[in-house]
From TrEMBL:
Native source organism of the sequence: Acetobacter cerevisiae
Keyword Calcium: no
Protein name: Cytochrome c
Primary location: membrane
Endpoints of the signal sequence: 1-32
Coiled coil regions, renumbered to chain: none
Localization per record: Cell membrane
Length: 422
């Protein structure tokens, strides 16, 4: 993740007071409608954090929940709305019914919402939880900040078209526990599928932006690749234990990897604040998913010219931190050996990190995240392609080679600086 994105995540976390207030919040999922308002509001605060509302509804250097963050979609830019209690520019005049319609059903007072707002996942939120969430959201201090949400080009700016999109891709139904699973797994499923909206980023999309049937198998997202979360050892979580998942969601790192890109912000603002019980429930859910078989490609031979060239540059540029063996440093620098993120067929995240660098999340459990500098200014496209091809075909990894053209395209897409001429 870039320095600016990390600073923004930390800034909005501390500014909103969320960082300091979550440890004592309750774990329970259902509050009676006649429970004390303060208890329901505090539970609603926890739900807002689990749903990561702050991250999307806060612009860079903006005020918490006042909106204004541009989301770059394949169809154009959608700017997040002001959800503070301001009556002119926010939702201060909304009723609970209007809030419920927007969050769970994708229908705002002025028309259908775009699914960049993950109502396709939030539809599963229970009646009791949406009521408690409202008790919290309605207390947000008013911020006068007018947002123009719809900046999409024609014809995507026609909201009525979403009637057809919803008919094709939206299942409007609350979460139903699986009677064949225990309470912990069902709790994890509820958090991952609804509030956590994991599938919104990690499930591939079709040409119209709807979820495919390849649930949790990884998807491209604003120059990053949200990785495969299925139980396969080559590109997914098959090697990870439940404790590995908990450690990652709590600290942003574990013995295999460190968070980067949008996931860093999700961990800083959301998952690190969840209770241990909820983190273990999420882990139990993902480990209970059916195993998925992935047939690895045949790795390139060590004698391959691109692999050989990449090894030379790796030893010069990368081995000081990642070591010549690719082992890295546990809970700090990712282990590149037999690494599912390295094996991903989509190299977007690897290219983003190498070109622009990344900073690990600064969390309570890991307050000093390790940083990696960007090499886009220093290395030519061919060098980066060779290094990544070497990494993706060494130490038990097996993934397609990259070309200089792949790097050049990524450099343009994510606006990485050009390399210094040789």
């Amino acid at each position: 993740m870039t320095r600016n994105l990390l600073q923004r995540a930390l800034r909005i976390s501390f500014r909103s007071g969320v960082v300091f207030s979550l440890a004592a919040l309750p774990v329970c999922t259902v509050h009676a409608q006649n429970a004390p308002v303060n208890a329901r509001m505090e539970h609603g605060r926890y739900l807002a954090v689990a749903g990561d509302c702050l991250a999307c509804h806060t612009a860079t250097d903006g005020k918490p929940f006042a909106g204004g963050l541009d989301l770059k979609t394949p169809f154009g830019i959608i700017t997040t709305s002001n959800i503070t209690s301001d009556k002119e520019t926010g939702i201060g005049n909304w009723t609970f019914e209007q809030f419920d319609n927007a969050v769970r059903h994708g229908k705002g007072p002025n028309g259908h919402l775009y699914p960049a707002m993950p109502y396709t996942a939030y539809s599963q939120i229970t009646d009791a939880d949406i009521a408690d969430l409202w008790e919290y959201i309605r207390t947000l201090p008013p911020v006068s900040y007018k947002v123009e949400s719809n900046k999409l080009p024609f014809p995507y700016n026609i909201r009525t078209l979403l009637v057809f999109w919803n008919f094709l891709f939206f299942k409007d139904a609350t979460f139903v526990p699986d009677s064949s699973k225990n309470d912990e797994i069902n709790r994890g499923a509820y958090l991952a599928q609804s509030l956590g909206h994991c599938g919104t980023c990690h499930t591939p999309k079709n040409a119209l932006g709807g979820d495919t049937k390849d649930t949790f198998q990884g998807a491209s997202l604003q120059g990053w690749f949200a990785p495969d979360l299925t139980n396969n050892a080559h590109t997914g979580l098959g090697q990870w234990t439940a404790d590995d998942i908990v450690t990652y969601l709590r600290s942003g790192t574990n013995r295999y990897t460190a968070a980067s890109g949008p996931m860093t912000e999700a961990i800083v603002n959301s998952t690190q604040h969840l209770t241990d019980a909820d983190l273990h429930a999420i882990a139990a859910y993902f480990k209970a998913l059916p195993p998925r078989t992935v047939s690895p490609p045949q790795p390139l031979a060590a004698s391959n010219a691109q692999v050989t060239a990449g090894q030379r540059d790796f030893m010069v540029e990368c081995s000081a931190c990642h070591r010549s063996s690719g082992a890295g440093i546990s809970n700090m620098i990712p282990d590149l050996r037999n690494n599912p993120a390295v094996n991903a067929s989509n190299p977007d995240s690897l290219l983003n990190i190498v070109l622009k660098g990344t900073e690990g999340p600064a969390t309570h459990a890991n307050p000093t995240g390790a940083a990696m500098p960007g090499f886009g200014w220093k290395l030519q496209d061919e060098q980066i392609a060779n290094i990544l091809t070497y990494i993706r075909n060494s130490w038990g990894n097996a993934a397609p080679a990259l070309s200089a053209a792949d790097v050049s395209k990524a450099r343009t897409t994510i606006s990485a600086q050009p390399a210094v001429p040789r």
